[in-house]
Amino acid sequence: MNQLNNHKAQGSALTTLLGGIVILLAVLFFLVKLASSGYYSDVEASTPSATETRIMPVGNIVMGDGTPIGERTGEQIFNKVCIQCHASDSIVANAPRLTNNGDWAPRIAQGFDTLFKHALEGFNTMPAKGGASDLTDDELKRAIVYMTNQSGGNFAEPAAGAAAAESTEGQQEAAPAAEESSAVSADGQKVFETACFACHNANSAIPNAPRLTNKDDWAPRIKQGKETLFKHALEGFTGPKGGVMPPKGGNTSLSDDEVKAAVLYMVNQSGGKL
User: How many Å apart are CA 130 and CA 120, to the nearest integer?
Assistant: First the structure.
């Protein structure tokens, strides 16, 4: 009789164990189903979730921080690409280092267009686009602006994408009005701060570049007359001691009136009265 009771007890325990396992598996199945249901749906269904699944892109190229190519900032590009050669403590020969104004001054003096050309096409041991062929032109320009403006320059970051298109359209629409304007109406100080500052600021270390407010630097130049100053600024000039002034300070996007306004500003801040 006791033996029969023991068999019944063992059978009941086995049934309970099997039942518990089945329940556990069922719970796990429903938890997995619930966890994954928010990401993908049956693509044949017509629910909003199914629609999102059908139109989900195959892939999207982004930086490690999720920024799409074409929208990266100058600082992001520097930290990803340029820092290898242009870090402030870089030991790469002839590579200008970030925040080292002495390294960058002669390069900034060549103008933004030359800097961009060298970065885009490669120059000496500098590979095209710093070796990052996926960089867009706008991103490359932003990286140049970031490095130069951290190192004594004062370039304006170019607009990108839709903003650039709108800017171009605005310039085209404004062109007729600009042609009608005959006077030098540009803000000379603003042009100086964006285009001339790197070489002509009061503390400039560029050899043979006259510095703002330094009357001794400007006096012999002022004596040549306004038209000569304008001609040298517009067309470029190589001084007798070797100083080189590129046409329009290297910024060929400046109008003649803007260049003249900048010349007048610098002269009148440095002992002249033009």
Answer: 8
In sequence order, the 6+-apart residues with CB closer than 8 A to the CB of 71 are 160, 161
Distance between CA atoms of residues 145 and 139, nearest Å: 10
Look up residue 30 and give its DSSP letter.
H
Domains, the chain, ranges and CATH?
Answer: 74-150 (1.10.760.10), 183-270 (1.10.760.10)
What span, in angstroms and rounded, lies between the C-alpha atoms of 267 and 269?
Answer: 5
Instruction: Quote the pLDDT of residue 13.
Output: 66
Q: How confident is the model at residue 50 (pLDDT cuts 50, 70, 90)?
A: low
- List the alpha helices (DSSP H) in the chain: 2-36, 48-55, 74-77, 83-86, 101-108, 112-121, 137-149, 161-180, 188-191, 197-200, 215-222, 226-235, 256-268
- In the structure encoding, which two tokens stand for residue 206, read together? 């560029």
- pLDDT given for residue 45 in this prediction: 52
> Is pTM beyond 0.85 here?
no
Considering only CA atoms, which of 160, 156, 159, 119 is closest in space to residue 140? 119
Residue entry with tokens 């300070």: 249
In angstroms, how far is CA 187 from the centroid of its own chain?
Answer: 26
